[in-house]
Design goal:
Shape: globular
Number of domains: 2
Distance between the termini: 12 Å
CATH superfamily of the largest domain: P-loop containing nucleotide triphosphate hydrolases
CATH topology of the largest domain: Rossmann fold
CATH class of the largest domain: Alpha Beta
Largest sheet: 6 strands, parallel
Structural class: alpha/beta
Length: about 325
Amino acid sequence: MTAALNEARLAGAQRTAVCLMGPTAAGKTGVAVALCKRFPFEIVSVDSALVYRGMDIGTAKPDAETLRRAPHRLINIRAPEEPYSAGDFVRDARAAIDEIITAGRIPLLVGGTMLYFRALTAGLANLPDAKPALRAEIDAEASRVGWPAMHAQLRQIDPQAAARIEPGDKQRVQRALEVYRATGRTLTDWQAAEPDHGDVDDTRYIKLALNTASREILHERIATRLNLMINNGFVDEVKVLRERPGLTAEHASMRAVGYRQFWAHLAGECTLEEASYRALVATRQLAKRQITWLRSESSLQSFEALEVDVIDSISGFLIRFFN
């Protein structure tokens, strides 16, 4: 199969990369590793949390044996104190894609950070630069009235953004309000404008989705995985991260689902049971947002994650596509 796919790829001059998207707990990593046994793929991670070192258990980062069998690019490339943006991802992903294609192989982009997929395949929105003074003003207002009140304010001016952003996601609430106050235009308006494609990207992206028709089963998988993370030392992992000088709950890495809730527990804001439940709810909400993104994605071929022969189904589709 690999030889046939190589011949098919080499017969066509166009650069090609395969995207494997899906909600959290859908089984993307397992499918990707299995596909690497059948095709000349190299995996590029598309996950805003996997970029951080020291965040292994709570991100379901592939273990050392999995990474040995199927290396993943763009994992463990940042300290948790460091920022990492969609623009950073596009730059790094394009460099990885170039290297993989130059080596005569095919990039397989795998993950659930839908914004990163959209930025890579469709371009970045031309958002205004940050305004530190305005940001400080919003922070001061939030300290007086609380972030739920700031989210309610956002809901009045930009209901679409408010629907996507959780009331507890301080940074994103702050950014949406900052954009509106600085420009008079909502974040949704800015994001709907013509994206900036930067340098021309002539890569053809084959977009696949690993999904499940049963929301109940997906929720069960999420709960099972979260329980496994907790049993494997997730809370201790957050405890170690809290001891890092300079790392706070406001850093992007610590706002990741699960980390935010267990950080609050360790800060004495809630019990372990409450934090676990909040993490479960937040993960379900994340999956719901990911599924919503997938529904809006164009030219997407979807596969049932729970199908027994899903690897065969995806493989058959790819062979037909390349041939």
